[in-house]
Amino acid sequence: MTRSRSLTVRPAGRRALLVELPDAERTAAFHAEVLRRRAAGTMPPVEEIVPGARTVLLDGVPDPQALARRLTEWEVPRGAPDDGEVVDIAVRYDGPDLEHVAALWGIAPEEVAARHTSRTYRVAFCGFAPGFAYLTGLPAELHVPRRTTPRTRVPAGAVALAGPYSAVYPRATPGGWQLIGTMPDPGPLWDPTRERAALLTPGARVRFVTADALTAAGGTT
């Protein structure tokens, strides 16, 4: 195990490292720095980079000990860069928890759409189900708790909130998030016939747009 003031590096098998960060912001910043250095050719060979809520897994590392020492010496800028692809997600704000979320936010239900679509989100990591992306970007005052009783079935396309995250369910599964809307066509979120099966991948930026507005602008997502 190797420590610095801002991260801890642990071995994960013979050819992998698990980098632990203190919070989501620094995890996103570290992940962005890994990608930047790999693109610039200054990152040692790494076969796979897998971000999590507070971790980044580096797999397929030829010399894990040497890389662990280098990682603790990195100067990582705070905050993820404001670049990367942007994916627009059409939403009908008709979810069953819309009124509850509005009450938690202290606004009228018809104002939730404007509040939710006013921000640009970033995919922090993926998990739970294929194509399920955890999106950061909600300010602390808009964080909401999970439901006390999870639903046994959340439909595909449900737009949801839980804690600091927004998400869209790519397929029907159980779930305990607050449902505020519906993506009319969730099919593009996960398509195993596509070269990149997941539409939303770590580092991508996401904008939610009301379905009517996206249709008027000629969008199809």
Overview of this structure, please?
It is a single chain. This protein has 221 residues and is α+β, with helices and mostly antiparallel strands. It contains 5 helices and 14 strands. The chain has a 5-stranded antiparallel β-sheet with strand order 1-2-3-5-4, with helices on one face. A 4-stranded mixed β-sheet has the order 6-14-7-8. Strands 11-10-13 form a 3-stranded antiparallel β-sheet. Strand 7 and strand 8 form a beta hairpin. The termini are far apart. The relative contact order is 0.16.
SSE arrangement:
Blueprint: E1 2-3, E2 8-11, E3 16-20, H1 24-40, E4 48-51, E5 55-59, H2 64-71, E6 86-91, H3 98-105, H4 112-116, E7 120-126, E8 133-136, E9 151-154, E10 158-162, E11 165-168, E12 173-175, E13 178-182, E14 205-210, H5 211-216
Parallel strand pairs: 6-14
Antiparallel strand pairs: 1-2, 2-3, 3-5, 4-5, 7-8, 7-14, 9-12, 10-11, 10-13
Strand residues, percent: 25-35%
Order of adjacent strands in the largest pleated sheet: 1-2-3-5-4
Low-confidence residue ranges:
none
The helix tally amounts to 5
SSE arrangement, N to C: EEEHEEHEHHEEEEEEEEH
The gross shape turns out to be: elongated
Number of DSSP strand runs: 14
Quaternary organisation of the protein chains = single chain
* Rg computed from alpha carbons, rounded to a whole number of angstroms: 19 Å
Give the mean pLDDT.
90
Biggest sheet overview: 5 strands, antiparallel
Helix content: 10-25%
What is the CA-CA span between the terminal residues? Answer: 44 Å
User: Helices and strands: which structural class?
Assistant: alpha+beta
